[in-house]
Amino acid sequence: MGAITTKEEIEEMLSEELQTISLSNLDEAPARRRAREAFKDTQLAIDHCLFKLPADGVKMKEVYEVNSRGIKIFSKSWLPERVPLKAIVCYCHGYADTCTFYFEGVARKLASSGYGVFALDYPGFGLSDGLHGYIPSFENLVNDVVEHFSKIKEQKKYQYLPSFLLGESMGGAIALKIHFKQPTAWDGAALIAPLCKFAEDMIPHWLVKQILIGVAKVLPKTKLVPQKEEVKENIYRDVNKRKLAPYNVLLYKDKPRLGTALELLKATQELEQQLEDVSLPLLIMHGEADIITDPSASKDLYKKAKVKDKKLCLYKDAFHTLLEGEPDETIIHVLDDIISWLDQHSSRKNKY
């Protein structure tokens, strides 16, 4: 009879495996897919409130398909099986992230509340093809997302349902860009710490920035953009959740690539000039202590957006990752705010 493996021994073995993964080269999609396959069951069993929410009656489907640019894209859907479908929610994930980890818990909660949820990993992120963490063109990335969500919305079973965008951090910027490309196609957008403007702590000194811009034109894939230590610490406020971060094995953890940083800087500069053009119903959520995306930019968006149907929720002392790294009560509060807003706007649309 073999020795009994204790919980501590299991955790130690897992931490060694996680360390091995973190030191592995995940630049290309096949390596990322192998890493996810090795850890997907473990991920869903971690001690995080998102994975303790009831998920019964949710039908999930994962798909790989090649888009019009010839890139293999990973996508996932979560559909309610036991309650009527109120609307569809299309999720845009943040920089460096994937739709297969923390969002899994969020999507299950939304689906069990009556929403069909759809998400994809952008090229260069998560399980989709492309060099990890590299955005050669923000415009092309937005077009890829528009193409994917448009195919979903055109399906007969969804085309008469209300449809909403849910965007987190960089995904908030993508959601707004989608709105500008399709001004009347969406019934609203819920934005979590949207990247409308980088906080000052995120932007290098002017001279360093000019040097980096010059180098980016020659070496756009180089991982060279400096990051302050306090910025890294602002991702998770809850210390225990910070310890769980390594389980997100698909997260891009290196320094930002020069080309990516340049594309994001250009995108935010464009967005700052377009806030007055936002015309769809908005729910804007931001942590008051966020030093990654600037809460003042969310206030500007709320103030300048020409739509009258808009709501701004600021969460006291909260950091950047409102749905992942906050204390349980804040995460549940934010989730409840999203579902309440969706319920209100879905029922309004369904009356007509």
Give the helix/strand layout:
Blueprint: H1 7-23, H2 29-43, E1 58-66, E2 72-80, E3 87-92, H3 102-112, E4 115-120, H4 138-153, E5 163-168, H5 170-181, E6 189-192, H6 206-218, H7 229-233, H8 239-244, H9 258-272, E7 282-287, H10 295-304, E8 310-315, H11 328-350
Parallel strand pairs: 3-4, 3-5, 5-6, 6-7, 7-8
Antiparallel strand pairs: 1-2, 2-4
Helix pairs in contact: 4-5, 5-9
Q: What is the total number of structural domains?
A: 1
Main pleated-sheet profile: 8 strands, mixed
Strand-residue fraction? 5-15%
What is the CA-based Rg, rounded? 20 Å
The CATH class turns out to be: Alpha Beta
Total count of helical runs of at least 4 residues: 11
CATH homologous superfamily label: Alpha/Beta hydrolase fold, catalytic domain
How far is the first residue's CA from the last residue's CA? 68 Å
CATH topology: Rossmann fold
Please identify, by name, the CATH architecture: 3-Layer(aba) Sandwich
Succession of helices and strands: HHEEEHEHEHEHHHHEHEH
Quickly give the structural class. Answer: alpha/beta
Share of helical residues: 40-55%
How many beta strands in the DSSP annotation? 8
User: What shape does the CA trace take?
Assistant: globular
- Mean pLDDT score, rounded? 89
Sheet with most strands: strand arrangement:
1-2-4-3-5-6-7-8
Poorly predicted segments? 1-7
Domain Serine aminopeptidase S33: 85-327
Protein name: Serine aminopeptidase S33 domain-containing protein
